[in-house]
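Quick one:
INPUT:
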C-alpha cells in the first residue's frame, strides 16, 4: 500500500571509441569493467558471479522454454570466461552484457534509494572512463547513458520489482500494459529520429518504444515485449515473483526516475490488493506505444477497448485517481514520506504536461532535451534531419560532466536534483542498509580474499581450512540488513568467524 518494496535498476551503457567505428564493443566493455575493478584493488572485482540459481528460461505463464529453442541472448546463466563480471562492495553487479558495460544496482526499498544507487553507477562509469583515458597509448572510450545508437541498435534499462507470488500474472499484464503505454510521457528520455533505425526525421518522447513488437513475451533483445515474462525471482519462489520491466528509458533527470519507479510500484500495489476497479485496456497496445512516443505535443488519442479515447496524460490521471482513493482507504493514519513525495510529484507533473509540456523542462528528460534541441533549431534553422541534432542527442548522455550536455545543464541549475552528490559518492562503495545487499557488500569489503563468488541470493566463501566452498543462501531479500548482521560482521575479524557465528545464530 506504499511505494516501498524491494526494487532495483539495471543499466546497459552505450560505448564507443572516437574515430574508430570498428572497435570491438565487447572488448571495450571488458576494459571498462576491469578499469573500475582495478581502482578498488582487492576490494572489488575479486569475486565472480554465482550462476547456480539463474533461471532465464522460466516463464511466468507457467512453462519453461526448451534450451535448444532459446535465442543465445536469453542464456544469461551461462558464464563466458572471456567477459568481465564482478561484484562490488556497494552490493551491485558490474559486467559485460550484450557488448555493453552494465551496472545492476543493489536491492533497495524505495524510489529515492533506487535513484541514488543508479546514479552511483553513472559515477562508476565515469571513473572507468577517467582511468582508461589516463593509460598511455590507449584510445579513449566514451560512455553514454542512453538506449540507442540511432542506427538500429537498442540497449536496455531494466527495472525490477518484487511482488507477491500469489498475484495472478494475467492481472499484472492486464493492468500494466495501458500504464506502460502512457508512462513514457513522464519518464521518456527523448530521441532524435523515428523508427528503429531513425529513418524518419523528427523527435520522439522515448528511446525504447520503437523497438517493442509484442505485448507479452520472454525475450529481451528480440521481439521485445511490453510485459516481460521471465520468472526468475532471485528470492523465495513461493512468496515472490520479480517483475522484470524492460521498456523503460535510461533517466538522468531525478524527478523522472523517481516517478518511473514510484508510480510503477504504486500501480503494482493496487494490482496486488485488487484495487484497480477501472478497466483501462488499450485496443492496440504496441502500435499505440509507438504513436504516443511519436507525439511530443501529447495530443495523440489512445483508443481503449471499451470505445473511449483519451490522451496518455488523461490515462495517467485515471491511474493517479485510483491510487489516491486506494491510499485514502488503506492508510487512515496518513501516508509515509516516500509515497507522499511520489503522489505530489505525479500530480504536479501531470498538471504541467496537460497545460504545457515545456513547463517540465527541469524535471523530465525528454522535455529538457527537446528544449535544448529546439533552441539549436530556432537559432540555426535546422531541420530534424540535420546530423548536428543527432550528434547533440548522443552528446546529451555522455557521462563526462565536461562533455555531457545533460550534466552541463544540470551544473547551471537548469535541472532539478533530488539526490545530493555526497550521497551518490557514498553509494559507489557502500551498500543499502535495509536489504540483503548490505550483507553482500560488507562481506566483499571486509573479507575480499575469502569470497569466491556471489549473486543476488548467495555469497560463496572460500575459507582456509575448509575443503569445500561455503555457500550462504540469501533467499529472503529483507534479511542480511545492517540491523540484522551489522554487529556480527563488525565483530568478526575473518570469514571463518563470521560463518561460525552465523551457524550459531541460525541453529
Amino acid at each position: 500500500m506504499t511505494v516501498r518494496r524491494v526494487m532495483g535498476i539495471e543499466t546497459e551503457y552505450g560505448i564507443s571509441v572516437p574515430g574508430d567505428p570498428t572497435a570491438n564493443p565487447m572488448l571495450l566493455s571488458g576494459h571498462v569493467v576491469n578499469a573500475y575493478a582495478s581502482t578498488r584493488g582487492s576490494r572489488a572485482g575479486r569475486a565472480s558471479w554465482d550462476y547456480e540459481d539463474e533461471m532465464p528460461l522460466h516463464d511466468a505463464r507457467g512453462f519453461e522454454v526448451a534450451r535448444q529453442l532459446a535465442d543465445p541472448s536469453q542464456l544469461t546463466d551461462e558464464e563466458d570466461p572471456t567477459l568481465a563480471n564482478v561484484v562490488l562492495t556497494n552490493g551491485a553487479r558490474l559486467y559485460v552484457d550484450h557488448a555493453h558495460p552494465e551496472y545492476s544496482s543493489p536491492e533497495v526499498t524505495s524510489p529515492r534509494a533506487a535513484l541514488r544507487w543508479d546514479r552511483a553507477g553513472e559515477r562508476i562509469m565515469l571513473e572507468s572512463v577517467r582511468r582508461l583515458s589516463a593509460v598511455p597509448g590507449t584510445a579513449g572510450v566514451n560512455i553514454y547513458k542512453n538506449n540507442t545508437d540511432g542506427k538500429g541498435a537498442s540497449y536496455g534499462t531494466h527495472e525490477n520489482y518484487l511482488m507477491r507470488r500469489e498475484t495472478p500474472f494475467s492481472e499484472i499484464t492486464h493492468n500494466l500494459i495501458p500504464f506502460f503505454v502512457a508512462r513514457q510521457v513522464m519518464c521518456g528520455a527523448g530521441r532524435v529520429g523515428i523508427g528503429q533505425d531513425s529513418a524518419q526525421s523528427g523527435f520522439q518522447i522515448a528511446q525504447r518504444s520503437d523497438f517493442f513488437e509484442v505485448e507479452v513475451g520472454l525475450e529481451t533483445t528480440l521481439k521485445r515485449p511490453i510485459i516481460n515474462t521471465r520468472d526468475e525471482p532471485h528470492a523465495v519462489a513461493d512468496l515472490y515473483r520479480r517483475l522484470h520491466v524492460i521498456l523503460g528509458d535510461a533517466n538522468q533527470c531525478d524527478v523522472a526516475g523517481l516517478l518511473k519507479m514510484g508510480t510503477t510500484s504504486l500501480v503494482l500495489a493496487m494490482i496486488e490488493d485488487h484495487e484497480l476497479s477501472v478497466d483501462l485496456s488499450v485496443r492496440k497496445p504496441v502500435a499505440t506505444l509507438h504513436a504516443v512516443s511519436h507525439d511530443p505535443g501529447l495530443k495523440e488519442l489512445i483508443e481503449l477497448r471499451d470505445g473511449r479515447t483519451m490522451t496518455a496524460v488523461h490515462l495517467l490521471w485515471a491511474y493517479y485517481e485510483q491510487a489516491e482513493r486506494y491510499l485514502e482507504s488503506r492508510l487512515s493514519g496518513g501516508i509515509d514520506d516516500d509515497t507522499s513525495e511520489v503522489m505530489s510529484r505525479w500530480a504536479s507533473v501531470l498538471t504541467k504536461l496537460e497545460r504545457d509540456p515545456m513547463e517540465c523542462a527541469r524535471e523530465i528528460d525528454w522535455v529538457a532535451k527537446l528544449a535544448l534541441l529546439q533552441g539549436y533549431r530556432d537559432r540555426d534553422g535546422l531541420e530534424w534531419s540535420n546530423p548536428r541534432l543527432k550528434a547533440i542527442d548522443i552528446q546529451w548522455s555522455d557521462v563526462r560532466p565536461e562533455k555531457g550536455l545533460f550534466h552541463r545543464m544540470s551544473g547551471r541549475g537548469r535541472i532539478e536534483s533530488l539526490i545530493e552528490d555526497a550521497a551518490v559518492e557514498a553509494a559507489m562503495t557502500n551498500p543499502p542498509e535495509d536489504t540483503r545487499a548490505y550483507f553482500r557488500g560488507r562481506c566483499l569489503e571486509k573479507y575480499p580474499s575469502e569470497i569466491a563468488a556471489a549473486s543476488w541470493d548467495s555469497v560463496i566463501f572460500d575459507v582456509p581450512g575448509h575443503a569445500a566452498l561455503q555457500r550462504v543462501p540469501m533467499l529472503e531479500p529483507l534479511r542480511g540488513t545492517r540491523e540484522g548482521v551489522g554487529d556480527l560482521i563488525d565483530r568478526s575479524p575473518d570469514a571463518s568467524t563470521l560463518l561460525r557465528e552465523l551457524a550459531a545464530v541460525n541453529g
